[in-house]
């Protein structure tokens, strides 16, 4: 039987519609950027959209054709935002590259994506000059600055000036409409094991993600907000904020390369920022700076923390001492990235402060558009009782179905449906609050039982003398593996192994208390600011546990 069809306008979901909407309906709303050049740049959504149109013309003049990739090595700033909209909006593909990766990895990624144009901030000129001979696919190198800041000489032949390219065009350009499933952007996973893999987003997936992430139980973005994405635009598209800010017409504040506590605090205060988002490590720096200098936040009300587990001590400090609501969130590159957020339900309103906090410490509930399951090793769904822990799988229109240029499917079948295995191990409670215990490759298996490294880290981080902590598995002759805690002390703080291990008593089952503590001056982080467990395990592979 033929279905009766709806009789609504057919309008493909286009990324350009976001910036068009912002330019028409939030024309004078500001986008403020702290530039690599050092100064503050201000303009509006209207200005941004016009420059994005000119940039789309410039890309076409450079010979770019539909589907070509435009790579970026850039901080959060207005030019980067223009590239987001100009590239995707003109059917090119915006490929944000994490500049903190090793140069060899960057070369590999640019070549794998076959970027035709590479746009980069002044900061990365020396890097690009070094790797350019290896970048066979790149036809045009564009330095994201004005004429005055162009280098007198560069080994990059035909180096183009971004502002000149834009200013040479007339803006007489209409955003094209095309199939909403067309690729809009690519992000590569960091590839802790093996080579990085590309997640290819579409206009449709990006728009659906932008709608859902702006909801009150997600990021909760509004036209009354001033949003400062600390999370870089090269880390899963700054978690979609460049899109959801335009969708709601929120003021955007871009920190550029200035991510230290002092610069961030100044920007938060001067621009009256209400909302932010970032990984726990950046908040460590900002909180320390604000505390040490006895400062506060006058307008900052909410922040999303994700990318790795938000330590409960950090959540409490921000909420109790600074009055900033923390929204703990979980996601991944393969999920555009939003999956779950720890927002309470109506039935939780009357809970005690501690009980509410316990829910906030979890990674939270799915947003509409994502569904999840936890599976046992035979891919059988496990109960949502807050106890059973299993492999977390997800599905939804902004979850990848395959990786760029890879044939093998990453998906698993459960009851006839395809699910994406996240590589995370989690529990889910009856209200749908999901809690990650570990990445499957980071779990500590002691005598057949699992010990959550996140639980151990959260306890250690609550100790006043601890700056940062990582729990890793260490070989043990009897138990296979036992936990070792690697700790960076706060500057000037006194702390012994015995005192720290004593701090675990009563906070966790006795058999889960780490066997040993290694004090170090620094814990290695990945290019997205996560603890590099692989490297730590390597460093401590011959560590002798006491007893
Ligand atoms: P990478 O950092 O490896 O490039 P992602 O940013 O996509 O890639 O990392 C996704 C992973 O980060 C998740 O699978 C999970 O292990 C971890 N993660 C993200 N958010 C959280 C969180 N709130 N708590 C614990 N782990 C998290």
From TrEMBL:
<dbReference type="InterPro" id="IPR020845">
    <property type="entry name" value="AMP-binding_CS"/>
</dbReference>
<keyword id="KW-0443">Lipid metabolism</keyword>
<dbReference type="InterPro" id="IPR042099">
    <property type="entry name" value="ANL_N_sf"/>
</dbReference>
<comment type="similarity">
    <text>Belongs to the ATP-dependent AMP-binding enzyme family.</text>
</comment>
<dbReference type="InterPro" id="IPR045851">
    <property type="entry name" value="AMP-bd_C_sf"/>
</dbReference>
<keyword id="KW-0436">Ligase</keyword>
<feature type="domain" description="AMP-dependent synthetase/ligase">
    <location>
        <begin position="21"/>
        <end position="404"/>
    </location>
</feature>
<dbReference type="InterPro" id="IPR000873">
    <property type="entry name" value="AMP-dep_synth/lig_dom"/>
</dbReference>
<dbReference type="Pfam" id="PF00501">
    <property type="entry name" value="AMP-binding"/>
</dbReference>
<dbReference type="InterPro" id="IPR025110">
    <property type="entry name" value="AMP-bd_C"/>
</dbReference>
<dbReference type="GO" id="GO:0016874">
    <property type="term" value="F:ligase activity"/>
</dbReference>
<dbReference type="Pfam" id="PF13193">
    <property type="entry name" value="AMP-binding_C"/>
</dbReference>
<protein>
    <submittedName>
        <fullName>3-(Methylthio)propionyl-CoA ligase</fullName>
    </submittedName>
</protein>
<feature type="domain" description="AMP-binding enzyme C-terminal">
    <location>
        <begin position="456"/>
        <end position="530"/>
    </location>
</feature>
<keyword id="KW-0276">Fatty acid metabolism</keyword>
């Amino acid at each position: 039987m033929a279905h009766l069809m709806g009789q609504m306008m057919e309008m493909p979901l286009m990324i350009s519609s976001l910036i068009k909407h912002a330019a028409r309906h939030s024309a004078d709303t500001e986008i403020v950027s702290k530039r690599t050049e050092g100064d503050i740049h201000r303009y509006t959504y209207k200005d941004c959209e016009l420059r994005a149109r000119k940039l789309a013309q410039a890309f076409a003049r450079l010979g770019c054709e539909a589907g070509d990739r435009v790579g970026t090595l850039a901080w959060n700033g207005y030019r980067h935002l223009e590239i987001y909209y100009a590239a995707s909006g003109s059917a090119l593909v915006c490929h944000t590259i994490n500049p903190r990766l090793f140069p060899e990895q960057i070369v590999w990624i640019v070549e794998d994506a076959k970027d035709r144009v590479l746009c980069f901030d002044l900061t990365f000129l020396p890097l690009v000059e070094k790797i350019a001979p290896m970048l066979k696919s790149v036809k045009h190198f564009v330095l994201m600055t004005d004429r005055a800041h162009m280098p007198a000489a560069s080994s990059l032949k035909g180096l183009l000036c971004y502002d000149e390219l834009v200013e040479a065009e007339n803006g007489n350009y209409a955003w094209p409409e095309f199939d909403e499933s067309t690729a809009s952007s690519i992000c590569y996973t960091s590839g802790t094991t093996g080579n990085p893999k590309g997640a290819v987003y579409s206009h449709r997936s990006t728009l659906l993600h932008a709608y859902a992430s702006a909801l009150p139980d997600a990021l909760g973005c509004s036209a009354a907000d001033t949003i400062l994405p600390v999370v870089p635009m090269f880390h899963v598209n700054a978690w979609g904020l460049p899109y959801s800010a335009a969708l709601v017409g929120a003021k955007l504040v871009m920190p550029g390369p200035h991510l230290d506590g002092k610069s961030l605090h100044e920007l938060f205060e001067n621009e009256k920022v209400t909302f932010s988002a970032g990984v726990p490590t950046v908040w460590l720096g900002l909180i320390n700076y604000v505390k040490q200098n006895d400062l506060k936040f006058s307008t900052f009300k909410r922040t999303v923390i994700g990318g790795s587990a938000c330590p409960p001590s950090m959540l409490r400090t921000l909420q109790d001492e600074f009055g900033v609501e923390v929204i703990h969130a979980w996601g991944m590159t393969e999920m555009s990235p939003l999956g779950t957020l720890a927002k309470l339900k109506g039935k939780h309103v009357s809970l005690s402060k501690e009980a509410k906090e316990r829910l906030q410490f979890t990674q939270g509930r799915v947003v509409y558009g994502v569904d999840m399951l936890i599976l046992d090793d035979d891919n059988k769904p496990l109960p949502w009782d807050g106890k059973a822990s299993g492999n977390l799988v997800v599905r939804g229109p902004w979850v990848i179905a395959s990786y760029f240029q890879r044939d093998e499917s990453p998906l698993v079948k459960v009851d006839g449906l395809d699910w994406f295995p996240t590589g995370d191990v989690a529990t889910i409670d009856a209200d749908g609050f999901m809690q990650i215990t570990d990445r499957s490759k980071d779990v500590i298996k002691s005598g057949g039982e699992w010990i959550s490294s996140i639980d151990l880290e959260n306890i250690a981080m609550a100790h006043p003398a601890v700056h940062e902590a990582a729990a890793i598995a260490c070989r043990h002759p009897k138990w296979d593996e036992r936990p070792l805690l690697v700790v960076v002390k706060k500057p000037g703080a006194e702390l012994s192994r015995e005192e720290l291990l004593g701090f675990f008593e009563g906070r966790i089952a006795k058999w889960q208390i780490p066997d040993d503590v290694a004090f170090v001056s620094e814990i290695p982080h990945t290019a997205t600011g996560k603890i590099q467990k692989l490297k730590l395990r390597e460093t401590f592979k011959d560590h002798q546990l006491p007893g």
